[in-house]
Amino acid sequence: MSCERQHVQAPIHPLMASRWSTRAFDARAVETEKLAACLEAARWAPSCYNDQPWRILVADRYHNHEAWQDLFDCLASGNQAWAQRAPVLLLACASGRFGHNGQPNRWGQYDAGQAMMALCLQATALGLVTHQMGGFDPEAARGKFEIPEDFSLMSVTALGYPGDPSVLEDEELRGRELSPRQRKPLEEVAWAGCFGQSFEPPAHAAWEARYQETPSEALPWYHPELDPDVAAALERLEVTGGRVLDLGTGPGTQAVALAKRGFQVVATDVSATALTGAAELASREGGRVHFVRDDILTTGLDEMFDLIVDRGIFHIFPPEAHADYLDSLDKLLEPGGYLLLKCFSHLETRPEGPPGRYSPEDIKRIFGGRFEVLDVRDSAFRRPDDNEPPKALFCVLRKRE
Question: Residue 2's pLDDT band (boundaries 50, 70, 90)?
């Protein structure tokens, strides 16, 4: 199953990153001690005036099957299709009045939501999974459990251990279980200073989040050896040594492979986590690489290189950043030096992946003023286990003298 966050924009605590709403539950019972811990986490959630307006009705099929069945029967049919295996169902209710003075509490539902989020995070910390549902009949539940009218019935949460997606009979549900999680971008949900003015997260934070949450071997751009396109280009150009800059080194496999071929390699990335992993790889493999945290758009490097390898950086930049990218290349690459560039092709139509998709004509237009475009050919970002790798262009460019 997949709980990967897609299009991450900033690092978050691993507990937050790993929480997700599964539909595949293992039918085994939840230990009473763990259930109590989840409820205790909800108890300590913040609330207006510390009123704690939530009430959580626990329906555990292994301790009170009748209550579990009554609450299950209140679920919408679409939720019943998968929640039938969840060992615990929790009905969250919110009081509409403050306990200390009986006055209306317009924050009660908000506070009940905070309590349930605390419960879900505690469940995640204990190796459990949750799925909160709005699809249920609140009036049927009110009648079955004799809940007073001044309580709003907010949600039913399924709680249990994660199960294999194969337990889901519906093919669409299995597909959802295996798909990466997505959210609206921060720019659509967070405003800076006034309503409608988007908050702009720093770009490097997204890369730090990705490398913190995803093992190197699982990254879409991971290649364990020197990219065959790079290896073939070096052979055609008869380049066997010199100073190399590996842009966006990520896992470090390309930098280490080049170092083992005798190149003097500097490898950069904006992610400190990526560089730490890459340095560990170099230490294990015996490749001598100088790793530097650096952003090519605002580079702080002050040395010149005979060769720059960009295997997947250029295509992440918007068009308005192209001038800064080219200026940095001009600053760092020796006259007559080579740029080996691999980027997404305009023929790649899948929505996932970087925003930049380029044709050979685009490459000539963007780079032609400062570089001789020696070769542009169709390629792909190949991984060892990928039968349909993303379509790419591999380009060999030489800086004009």
Answer: low
